[in-house]
Amino acid sequence: MEKKLLALSSVLLLAILIGCGAVPDDTEPLPDPLDPSTNYKVEAPEEVVNWAQYEIDSLVQSLPIEVLDREIINLQLTKSLDFHDSSTIDLYEFNFKLRPGDLKEDATFDLDAEGWILSDNNFNYSDATGMEQREGQLYLLINNQDSELTSLGIRRAELLSDQWCEDLLAYYNYPRGVNFSATEEEIQTMRKYWEYKPEWSFTMPSDKGYGDTWSVGLGYAHEWGLGIPYEFISYDSEPSADLVSLSFENVIRRYYDGFSVVSLGGFYGDNDVEPDFAVNQYISVTQPDCETSRGISVGDSVEALKTAYPEAIAYDGVWVYAPEGTNRSIMFMIQDGIIVQIDMADGLDGQYTNPAGIEVK
């Protein structure tokens, strides 16, 4: 029990974003030939060189300065990582320089002796996990699928370690630990674990045409959102990580007025016949007409809570119902003796996505 309660202090993982593009028809070729008097190291197929030029052009378009010229000074394959469907992510060590026009006095670029802006420490690029950094070697990421090459953008690495590469693969939804060879029996065991159970659900009045009430609970979430009566506010998604990445591809958060849900999607046991299998892992509620299976809702008193859930105990200002034999729990936040928020969670023994504290909008 103590282990479950200590897990309540977990925080939300940060979502991270990265962009990738496509080669435009009017890609500018590199100056040819490269000046042999330089120390340039460009050892890459022409298509990779074009992608490198494209990434530079994309950067130039975003800069608030005039760029008179641009040159690749280093482009060579360093490492190749196994990826989806027998494809690879090829890491090309990458350096370039830009010749600026007249710079304003407040320009903050470091220039070399000839007045070029070097890529080494002048531009922010993401690391393996998507966090921006200004120092470290640049790598051009090329996805090679049956000799069809696509850029996944540019990343920085202070040290190209095995851990950095594993983090990069996890960011692109392919952690090395994913077990794609799970047996049908193992898949069905996971499905059974996530079966919908009324005890672990909220019920609310609904006018969406699916009956007078609608229920949303932990577990199987197919079509779960159709009858929710509250105003939809926003949605976000991020690649899964840690334990959840062994079974699910992404973490999805949906926000309604006073009602928020963390779901897990992209189940690796999905097939072409059945609908996608998604599950709800965490639900947070401040709506007073949204009840637990024992009839408790926001606005009820602590006395009513203790009557309905005599097993619940107080812990650091929160009443918690966490029966033995399950990782699930219901948390009742109290202010001045009144319930102001109710959270329902699965997986408190090592939270998959650390959703405790999800903001109810």
Structural commentary:
This protein is mainly beta and 361 residues long. It folds into two domains: 41-171, no CATH class; 188-345, no CATH class. It has helices spanning 2-6, 46-62, 162-171, 184-193, 302-308; strands at residues 41-43, 67-82, 88-100, 117-118, 125-126, 132-133, 137-145, 148-157, 201-205, 213-217, 219-220, 232-239, 248-256, 259-267, 279-285, 291-292, 313-315, 318-321, 329-335, 338-345. The strands form four sheets. Strands 11, 12, 13, 14, 15, 17, 18, 19 and 20 form a nine-stranded antiparallel beta sheet that branches. Strands 1, 2, 3, 4, 7 and 8 form a six-stranded mixed beta sheet that branches. The chain has a three-stranded antiparallel beta sheet with strand order 10-9-16, with no helix packed on it. Strand 7 and strand 8 form a beta hairpin. The radius of gyration is 26 Å and the shape is elongated. The model is unreliable at 1-38 and 349-358 (pLDDT under 50).
What's the quick description here?
It contains five helices and 20 strands. The chain is mainly β and 361 residues long. It folds into two domains: 131 residues, no CATH class; 158 residues, no CATH class.
Compile the SSE list and pairings.
Blueprint: H1 2-6, E1 41-43, H2 46-62, E2 67-82, E3 88-100, E4 117-118, E5 125-126, E6 132-133, E7 137-145, E8 148-157, H3 162-171, H4 184-193, E9 201-205, E10 213-217, E11 219-220, E12 232-239, E13 248-256, E14 259-267, E15 279-285, E16 291-292, H5 302-308, E17 313-315, E18 318-321, E19 329-335, E20 338-345
Parallel strand pairs: 1-2
Antiparallel strand pairs: 2-3, 3-4, 3-7, 5-6, 7-8, 9-10, 9-16, 11-15, 12-13, 13-14, 14-15, 15-20, 17-18, 18-19, 19-20
